[in-house]
Design a protein that fits this description.
heterodimer; A: mainly beta; four-stranded antiparallel β-sheet; 0% helix; B: mainly beta; six-stranded mixed β-sheet; five-stranded antiparallel β-sheet; 11 strands; 58% strand
Chain lengths: 114, 110
């Protein structure tokens, strides 16, 4: 059974650019959550999608956005990149909204902003 | 706002020792608590999930307990091995999202 797949695994961008990260959940999982991990702030919740609808959003600026497709795959986009956006972005999937379910995480996409 | 704290931040033990990692949280209104393991540069691996109505969960050499009233959880690792070296993260789900602690970095020396 394939796990959660995130692409790309590594990327380097410059300030002002935008980036799109992709997440393919485990087959049958309909909920996808995104988290940002930095050395200073640790893991912080970005947003959660279920059945193509955003259920919750963390305390991040509007430059951070996401969407979910009908096949449950999700993308997140960060526009006008800043140095502080350098982080490991983790995606997690679960069968249903994550409150009562185990979240399975992908390996992450490591973004470096120069 | 839910705050999750993990103590100690780092721990080094010789192989074979039993050890306890601690996690505390400020709001007892939780859906569940999950323990994860993270290897350097990698994603998170779920170890144990304790629902709010449960007191403990066990998987192999791992045992996690939950005391909602005191806002505490412990992860007990029996007979530690060098392969257990990793960062262990505690996360509490309050119905909105997982709130993570900063983790305990564990080193098990041969």
């Amino acid at each position: 059974k394939a796990g959660v797949t995130q692409t790309p695994r590594y990327l380097i961008k410059t300030r002002g650019q935008q980036v799109t990260l992709s997440c393919s959940p485990i087959s049958g999982h309909r909920s996808v959550s995104w988290y940002q991990q930095t050395p200073g702030q640790g893991l912080q919740f970005l947003f959660e999608y279920f059945s193509e609808t955003q259920r919750n959003k963390g305390n991040f600026p509007g430059r951070f956005s996401g969407r979910q497709f009908s096949n449950s795959r999700s993308e997140m986009n960060v526009s006008t990149l800043e140095l502080g956006d350098s982080a490991l972005y983790l995606c997690a999937s679960s069968l249903a909204p994550s409150g009562a379910n185990v979240l399975t995480f992908g390996a992450g996409s490591r973004l470096t902003v120069l | 706002k839910q705050e999750v704290t993990q103590i100690p931040a780092a721990l080094s033990v010789p192989e074979g020792e039993n050890l306890v990692l601690n996690c505390s949280f400020t709001d007892s209104a939780i859906y569940n608590l999950q323990w994860f393991r993270q290897d350097p540069g990698k994603g998170l691996t779920s170890l144990l999930l304790i629902q709010s109505s449960q007191r403990e969960q066990t998987s192999g050499r791992l045992n996690a307990s939950l005391d909602k009233s005191s806002g505490r959880s412990t992860l007990y690792i029996a007979a530690s091995q060098p392969g257990d070296s990793a960062t262990y993260l505690c996360a509490v789900h309050s119905g909105y999202a997982l709130n993570f602690g900063k983790g305990t970095s564990l080193l098990v020396t041969p």
